[in-house]
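--- STAGE predict ---
source: upstream dedup step, 1 unique chain passed
mode: sequence only
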Amino acid sequence: MSAATSVLNTKVLVLNRSFLPIQITSVRRAFSLLYQGVAEAVNAQYQTFDFDSWSALSVSMHDDTIGVVNRVIRVPRVILLVAYDRLPRRQVRFSRFNIYARDRNTCQYCGHRFARSDLNLDHVVPRSQGGTSHWENVVCSCHACNRRKGGRTPEQARMRLLHPARRPEWTPFMLQTFSLRRYQEWGPFLSTVDASYWNTELQE
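--- STAGE serialize ---
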């Protein structure tokens, strides 16, 4: 992978027009949005720049840059969607992906971490005993623990849950994304809202 391609695949924080973070995207996508006029680049002083004015900024030896025809452009680490003002929903989707992420791909009975292909979703109170499919009754379990537990409750099988199953107040995917490398340019925007905001599911 070339250096230019590597930079294009790094991360950019996306704000709505109220300067609230709503997503993380790639440098490649950010430049596309800038060029189309859909977004503007933002600096730490909350100043905004369209594509031409951002391109005209001087580049220092410490900046992330990308080369284009006849010039080098500073990589924006924060962009503002100029016509987008929707906020993330606070409802977390009940899904296989999110349950695996909530439980960190860890069997909630033996405590070992597995590849997702080696995990099942287990009903704490089995459906045969009236258990339903909801956040507080479904956990990750490995195949061995799942077979051992069978159609019983943990108490009946003399097994213990590592953690009670709970509905998360965040979207695990966003939690993982925001826990990746953070750029210093994100600081002024990430510090304005508490963590429960970042970790919510985005609207389609």
